[in-house]
Amino acid sequence: MDITIVGAGSAGLTLALLLAPSGLNIMLLEQGAAPVQGSADYQRVSALNLASVRLLSALGAWPALAQSAQPYHAMQVWDADSFARIEFDAATERQAQLGFICDNEQIRRALYQQLTQHNNVQFVFNCTINSLVQSEREVLVNINQQQLILSRLLVGADGVNSRVRRDAQLPLTHWDYEQQAIVATISTEVAHHDCARQVFLPTGPLALLPLPGQHKCSIVWSCTPARANELLALDAGAFSQALTAASNSVLGVLKLDNTPNAFALRMRYANSWLRGRIVLVADAAHSIHPLAGQGMNLGLMDVAALGELISEALAQGSDIAEPRLLRRYERWRKAEAQTLILAMEAFKRGFSNAQPLLKLVRAVGMSSVDQLPWLKSKIIAAALGNSGDLPKIARPAGKSARLA
């Protein structure tokens, strides 16, 4: 085997699809089941920016995904505790939309459907990894009933609790955001008009993300564990009332459609992303606060970067696990991840501080940005994936080449 990818989530599947045309023999190992066709339930969603859409379009996965994706043409962000407010709209940025809200499982389904067309890609689902060891030339993975898989390169795309990261003894920096994210789908009294909204509350941000149908949204309500426990203990009616109040009735009366789920929010960052012939991507290498909705985009750009460098190595007749190649990938994507992690931490700390002076400063700062078109355009260009050190496949048309 040339490459073994551990994890058949969106990142692992995308990397396999990027490399499949090269003719490399690729194995994907996934502890869960294979994606099965079905309608989107929007239990877990991601906001895909334009860079991610360009990537998925180039891979042929976007047409199937677009059927259930909800475009958003505007964004409104405000502070519940001050006059701070900022708004963005696609027309001002000369874009058809700012991004798309997509069902996470539908992303996997679209990628998997494309991958099944490649005979050089194999899958092992419901897979248990027994051990993982490497030599100078190859990586050996022992799975299930003592099945052995040898490969020249092993990629850990197995999420925040990465087995690959642990077995490769790659050290991890982490801290607890001291928040939980409550996710659910809701019905709204007022049409969302394809606008993504987020309000910063004293206990954390609440995002209202538009879904297909003008009166459906997905919520991501980040709050302290104590507040999360209080909310989850409420019946549907009381939860809906609390949600309506927290959103300041911006979409009128809100009604819970399903049982909310919650998960703890933690920052994780691997100090090293590689060891020998093992390399990490996406959530296995980093996880960030969901307040800006950039986690999925960051991971997809990781695999696009790694895929680009591996393709360059193949074109030059080099080893796909050559140390200099993997270090280039690590330097490239570490810089992007570090920038976003620091930005999310600054946002989180800045908006959770109740000191009157700091509240005034952030209110003045956000309102000032809203009045400066050139600065707003720089901020939104980064959020849209139209600026920064992007892989070639994800760049806007005409964007210059990346610096080496």
From TrEMBL:
Pfam families: FAD_binding_3. Pathway: Cofactor biosynthesis; ubiquinone biosynthesis. GO terms for biological process: ubiquinone biosynthetic process. Residues 2-340 form the FAD-binding domain. The keyword S-adenosyl-L-methionine does not apply. GO terms for molecular function: 2-polyprenylphenol 6-hydroxylase activity; FAD binding. This is Protein visC. It comes from Rheinheimera nanhaiensis E407-8. The lineage of its organism: Bacteria, Pseudomonadati, Pseudomonadota, Gammaproteobacteria, Chromatiales. The gene is visC.
